[in-house]
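Encoded backbone
================
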Amino acid sequence: MDDDPLEETLFEDEQTDAEQALAPSVDVPDGSNADPQLRRQFWFLVVVFNVALLALSVGLMLAAFRGRWNDGLTGVAAGVILFGYGYYRYRTITRD
């Protein structure tokens, strides 16, 4: 099974000359040049939005699947508040 020509052509890692000629060259900027304060604010917002999404989704699942309405609504409210806070912080950061 190691000598299967179909498998060799499907999973070949090398590009053909035509693919190399047509492939665009892309310069990916290095994040180390960014302002340290901007990087800190970015990662803070990433954490805020991740926690907001977690609280919102767990709250909805608690309410829908377990019938724990108080806990579920608390999670949903926390998620909505965190989304609002994250959006507010995002808007204040982008205005500067």
